[in-house]
Amino acid sequence: QVQLVESGGGLVQPGGSLRISCAASGFMFSIDDMGWYRQAPGKERELVAVTTSDETTNYADSVKGRFTNSRDNDKNMVYLEMNSLKAEDTAVYYCYARIREGIHNYEYIYWGQGTQVTVSS
In sequence order, which residues have a C-beta less than 8 Å from that of residue 73 and are 6 or more positions away? Predict the structure, then answer.
């Protein structure tokens, strides 16, 4: 079974920067999509940034120009560089991946456990 493990969350002041990472481990045929969703208390989980296998990234309008999602396909990792952080960015950030695995190479959706990002002074 594939696992997604996030790291790098923490507390940062408004206007600051933070880099969070996600590593996919286990045997897999390929990673089709990989990126991030986030969920704030009382809010729906929303897409932040997801990058496809052809390196096309879909960003939420609220983070466009501030966040950058980067994939390292050799390491099966994805990095979210967050700049000019706002209080509204405070949320649990969940790694997300669509992965082909198993003897039939079926596609599965995986979620990480989440890492807390808090933007506050």
Answer: 31
- Nearest by Cα to 28 from 55, 54, 57, 53: 53
Going by C-alpha positions, the residue among 47, 50, 23, 17 that lies closest to residue 35 is 50
> What ranges make up the beta strands (E) of the chain?
3-7, 10-12, 18-25, 30-39, 46-52, 57-59, 67-72, 77-82, 91-101, 106-111, 115-119
Give me the torsion for CA of 5, 39, 100, 50, rounded to 10°. Answer: -100
Give the contacts of 103 (CB within 8 A, at least 6 positions apart). none
Q: Report pLDDT digits (tens) over 92-114.
A: 999 999 999 888 889 999 999 99
Cα(107)–Cα(121) distance, integer angstroms: 42
* Cβ neighbours around 84 below 10 Å, total: 13
